[in-house]
AraC family transcriptional regulator (Cytobacillus kochii), 285 residues
Amino acid sequence: MSWVTDIQKALDYIEANLLKKLNSEEVAKQANTSPFHFQRTFAILTDMTLGEYIRRRRLTGAAIELGNNDEKIINIALKYGYETPEAFTKAFKKQHHISPSEVKKYRGKLKLYQPLKIHVTLEGAEPMNHTIISKDSFQVVGIRKNYSLENDANLTEIPKLWNQVNQDGTCDRLLSLNNGSIKGVLGVCVDHINHREIDYWIAVNHNGHSTSFETITIPASTWAVFQVHGEMPKAIQHTWKQIFSEWFPTSGYRHAGTAELEVYPEDGSNRSNFYSEIWIPVIKE
């Protein structure tokens, strides 16, 4: 259960430092992982970004203070990280649907968010079709885009990249080069050494040289390979959540921190029986 313990340490760290400038690298360090993998895990488990959670918790604290004491709004705004009353009021109204001054007058209900706690529920968990395999290093070729982790830009921009390559013929050109053992189009996440960015690849397993696309070598790894059945993107999103909420906490493995893959070996992702795979590099805890 060390995986669960590590995530909870990060959550406790956020709570203890809520009034300070929180750095995603320092938060992720509490969970013994990189900022990218922590932010990705957090978003999968909670259906919100790390930045959104921190903002909700701060605005919860601010609302409680506004209702319980006579402190000026500007002072509370500054305390919770807002440089101007205008920025604070805009964020406050977005969450609570009333203004800070209205809270002072006891008008309206507040939308308060309690600190998250990690719990693992084993009873009734769905079986997960997966295998553990060892594979030597292999080469993929494709297109690469760099994304900043600031403001969780990668979560919104990667779907746009998929739309682009599906519409402009890039996927078809890549599939014509797919001569490796992994069949289909791959989505490959590679964490940057500076931990502030990721490279995201749409690629294929290709043995040989390509003049049209970039090349990357995926290191030799032990992989947990999960089968996904169902219409995209709902089916793969559901499987990712299962992996992090059910499989990792009890598997005896942790994420190795290297590139992970989504494998799409078929056409027709809108089919109800569409087949795909998630490949996660793992190490024994």
Q: What stands out?
A: Residues 50-68 form the longest helix (19 residues). The chain has ten helices and nine strands. The chain has a mean pLDDT of 88. The longest strand covers residues 138-148.
